[in-house]
Amino acid sequence: MTDSNTGGEATILEERRRKLEELRAENKAYINDFIPSEHALDLHELHGAFSKDELEKAQVKDLALAGRIVLKRVMGNASFITIRDGSGDIQIYVSKNNIDVDLYKNFKTWDLGDIIGVTGKLFKTNTDELTVEAHSIVLITKALRPMPEKHKGLADIETRYRQRYIDLMSNPESKAIFVKRSNIIAAVRSTMLQDGFLEVETPMMHSIPGGAVAKPFITHHNALDRELFLRIAPELHLKRLLVGGFEKVFEINRSFRNEGLSTRHNPEFTMLEFYAAFATFQGTIDFTTRIIQSASEAIGNSAQIEWDGDQIDLTSFHTKTLAELVLAENADLSNEDLSNIETLRTYASDQKISYKDSWGAGKILLEIFEKTVEPKLIQPTFVTEYPVEVSPLSRRNNEDSSIADRFELFIGGKEIANGFCELNDPDDQADRFRDQVKAKADGDDEAMGFDEDYIAALEHGMPPAVGVGVGIDRLVMMLTNQSSIRDVILFPQLKS
Q1: What's the gap between Cα 235 and its chain centre?
Q2: SS3 for 386?
């Protein structure tokens, strides 16, 4: 049923304000002394299976609930409403035989969206619907603006994202996604703690952009009169903690990257980053797998999930090298071609894959991989052996110094995690920073700066370690079968 008032929103607002003023005059506006003792979901779970006669014998009474009116059927001497609290919906039966006659008259003027308090007894209707028979009711909060029409409200994407509170109050499915998000993060944290990791907090404003290859947000600190950068990644600070003596640390927090908006990207996003001293490369791959599987189990998923129309098997994680995947998808390339910059330039041009003249063979190879291979990695796949050129913080492989001991995890054609054996050679790291500084001078806005203090930290000695970053937003997208990152972030960034 739609709102009882007719006309445009301005007319509705005016009429509801008039009702509010009447409440103010009676000192009944914005009540704050009603304390609910039950929630709708608990009542359904505890008593929903009872028959009508069993419930009558049980005498479940003296209940107190509070919630927003989302449905209202007003009749002469008795009415039915549905209220929605933080757990779900429940039907309320209101009769002038059970409450004061004048109160019932006032109740009939209450609107959809109003927040009310109800006390009463539980019963089942002839249609077997669990219902609270109201013995007293109170208008707690007057809603001045109307709730959206049910179907119109759910279809209005702009409203869902820009006014998330409307989405949540009118769309239980949307609310359920964010409950699952909370449970996923709790499961990730639990897995980390159970494995002996220490949760820490590191700065979100950095004096030097670093920890990842991305364009930073820039701000200015007035008192210090200096430029600061919103965190691209917590990596360099977390690894300083390894130098200090912590052996297993993690952080779940915000990072910021000054990039475009898309269904996969939000400039403010949530990441899990963890670092473990003396860990093995394969052991970290296995642990990353366990993090994802445990998070999926925590929200009741089966081993087989669906994401964007693809069926994904979370019991089977594959490992492939970047080179073998590129060769499998690009038959015109040979293994020797993958290190020949002129051949890669020609091939990229033929495939209409853009590149910059300053890029080396490794960067062009990565671009070919991202365009031709990445979208096809539907089943969970750890991709290994990335070029050192695109892995400025990764340790070189012992057998082949042109590649890094690095992996990225792809599921559903999207990157979910990035991990590598950490570079703990201060001289090698300094050389890589210099390469990044040169790339920035050549116009690469995403290149890192030279972090002298981090080099000093490495000179004190960092133990061998493996680190991983997991995109929490994309993980939630996958585990809740959402195609847009905006559907798993409560308040996504939007164009004006």
Answers
A1: 20
A2: strand
Q: Do the beta carbons of residue 248 and residue 198 sit within 8 Å?
A: yes
Distance CA 415, CA 227 (A): 31
pLDDT digits (tens, 9 = 90+) for 105-128: 999 999 999 999 999 999 999 999
pLDDT tens sequence across 345-387: 999 999 999 999 989 999 999 999 999 999 999 999 999 999 9
C-alpha separations of 26 from 16, 31, 35 in Å: 16, 12, 21
Number of domains in the chain: 2
- Tell the burial category of 218 from Cβ atoms under 10 Å away from its Cβ (0-12, 13-18, 19+): exposed
Grade residue 5 by pLDDT with cuts at 50, 70 and 90: very low
Reported as a single tens digit per residue, the pLDDT across 290-319 is 999 999 999 999 999 999 999 999 999 999
DSSP state of 396: B
pTM over 0.90: yes
**174 and 69 co-located in one domain:** no
* pLDDT (tens digit per residue) in 154-163: 567 888 899 9
* 278: containing domain: 170-317+380-487
Domain CATH for 140: 2.40.50.140
User: The dihedral of CA 101, 106, 108, 114: what is its sign?
Assistant: negative
pLDDT at residue 150, rounded to an integer: 64
The b/e string for 345-354 (b: 16+ C-beta within 10 A; e otherwise) is: bebbeeeebe
132 in the same domain as 180: no
195 Rama sector, left if φ>0, alpha if ψ -120 to 50, beta otherwise? alpha
* Helix (H/G/I), strand (E/B), else coil: 409: strand
198 and 269 share a domain? yes
Helix, strand, or coil (residue 194): helix
Structure tokens at 237: 């600070």
